[in-house]
Amino acid sequence: MQGVVWVVLAVLALLLVAVVYGYNRLVFNRARVAEAWSGIDVQLKRRSSLIPNLVGCLKVYMAHERDTLEQLVLQRGAVQAHEGDDPPGRSVAESQLSAGLLRVFALAENYPELKADNGFLDLQRTLSELEEQIQMARRYYNGAVRELNVLIESVPSNLLAQLFGFQCATYFALDDARDALSPKLEF
């Protein structure tokens, strides 16, 4: 009889260890998603902070493109209004800002003196590098989301996820503006 009690206690102890281990894996992956999101957030804020400098530089050369520049400023305002939002809410505003940057740099091709301005070229280069960093941070975030979602949806960790209220995270989609932001070399 005493042997059966020890077996039951051992099984319960193993079950408790499995639950604690599974719960800790879920918590770890949720924290990794939050950390990855903060990496994206930092890069997006850096990009947003460059918009006033870009607009200031462009105003000198593109005076009759006022509507485009105003639209870019409005898109930056929309991005700032969505800071702190979840990835789906933020990605719409960020994609619109990316599209606005694409339009501005496409229009800049029509202004040879602007394309020769070192300040503009530095801003363009910096924005291009930031786009690459945003894409790297996005890939890391989406990888962390994938790992968390797999844990939440696969057996047996899905039972713990339901029990403790873990929710699937949302991927962050963003248009890739790197190519349009890269300086064009013409010979």
Describe this protein's structure.
The protein has helices at 2-61, 66-81, 87-108, 112-115, 118-153, 157-164, 178-181. The protein has 187 residues and is an all-alpha fold. It has one domain (2-181): de novo design (two linked rop proteins). α1 (2-61) crosses α6 and α2 runs antiparallel to α3. The protein is rod-shaped. This is LemA family protein. Belongs to the LemA family. Keywords: Coiled coil, Membrane, Transmembrane, Transmembrane helix. It is a single-pass membrane protein. Residues 120-147 form a coiled coil.
Reconstruct the topology from this structure:
Elements: H1 2-61, H2 66-81, H3 87-108, H4 112-115, H5 118-153, H6 157-164, H7 178-181
Helix pairs in contact: 1-2, 1-5, 1-6, 2-3
Which CATH C-level class is it? Mainly Alpha
CATH superfamily: LemA-like domain
Count of discrete domains: 1
Instruction: Give the distance, in angstroms, between the N- and C-terminal Cα atoms.
Output: 90 Å
Strand content: under 5%
Task: Calculate Rg over CA atoms.
Answer: 24 Å
What's the shape?
Answer: rod-shaped
Which terms summarize this structure?
187 residues; mainly alpha; de novo design (two linked rop proteins); membrane; LemA-like_dom_sf
In short:
The protein has 187 residues and is mainly alpha-helical.
